[in-house]
Automatic annotation (TrEMBL):
The keyword Oxidoreductase applies. Transmembrane segments: none annotated. Residues 1-144 form the NADPH-dependent FMN reductase-like domain. GO terms for molecular function: oxidoreductase activity. InterPro entries: Flavoprotein-like_sf, FMN_Rdtase-like_dom, NAD(P)H-dep_FMN_reductase. This is FMN reductase. It comes from Paenibacillus abyssi. The keyword Nucleotide-binding does not apply. The lineage of its organism: Bacteria, Bacillati, Bacillota, Bacilli, Bacillales.
Amino acid sequence: MKLLGISGTLVGAKTLSVVKRVVEQAALLEPGLDTDLLDLKDYKIEFCDGREPAGYNEDTRTVIETILSADCYIIGTPIFQASLSGALKNVFDLLPVTAFRGKVIGFVGTGGTYQHFLVIENQLKPIAGYFRAYTAPDYVYAHREHFNEHNEVVDVGVLERIESLAAQVVKMSKALHG
């Protein structure tokens, strides 16, 4: 079983930090789990314009193929202007509607206000529903005050939510895919 962590932003380090921590926790819970991280900052992804995947540049095709090859996901985004990042939305637009069908997604959000956690409930979970994915009941939202100066999560409550999300994604994926 392959778990892919996706940091859906082109700026900052906090989202990647939390996604990476959830993926690492999942690997501790399930030693045979194959894990990978996809940091959108590392790719020059073209804007979706309706072309077939073969028509996009190599980085865009690599991102699409990497996502399609995974069995479950931890998808993170910073919250900008009360919404997910444009970079992550563009990736969702590039994917076929079957990309996440029958697969488990756990969501991570980072932001500057305590109310931005609602983006996970009101935007990300409906997108997962459109893709016919299963979503973990819990999610992780981390405010900038939950990190130290090295962008590491230090808040005990957030660390507990990281453990819970990792456990739910692993358990749900195992139940669905054996």
